[in-house]
Amino acid sequence: LNDFPNPLILCGPSPCGKTHLIYAIKNYLKSNEPSLKVCVVPFDDFISLFVEGLHKKDLSEFKARYESNDVLMLDNAQFLAGLSGTQEYFAEIFHEMYLSGKRILLVSDRPSKWYKPLYDNLNDKIEIFQIVDIEAPDYSIRKKYLQGIANQKPDILTANMIEYISAS
User: Fold this and answer.
1) Is the pLDDT of residue 27 over 90?
2) How would you class 90 by CB atoms within 10 Å of its CB: exposed for 0-12, middle for 13-18, buried for 19 or more?
3) pTM of the full predicted structure?
4) Whole-angstrom distance, CA of residue 44 vs CA of residue 99
5) CA–CA distance, 12 with 132 (Å, rounded to integer)
């Protein structure tokens, strides 16, 4: 976990495998440090639980749910932009986790500048993120990957299918 940059933003176009990558990171962390509490949260789930807390007029359970993790990964974090109430609570969660030495990873479909208009409190803290821009794999990598699948399961992918998918 000490090698895990903190905090970290993965940015890249859709679909280039960012969500698959964070689940691979989660699996790696859990296999190497089984006691870690690692949470991958799709933004839809994050906002749903936030709204549920608002309806209950108690956001303490919402905050505790995320702050209790050793690693929090928020997928599609670009949707925080423009949601000032959600940003404020995310900033509190972020701040508590960061001060406690816990790890935070955000995933965004937007370029690394997406977070600039965020709530000032979060914006000040987010400047320290390590930003990694991810690009979609090129034709040769896609073709090699698909060929590997076809070699393992030859009855699933034909040469024409591999060519068509790789070119997309």
Assistant:
1) yes
2) buried
3) 0.73
4) 26
5) 8
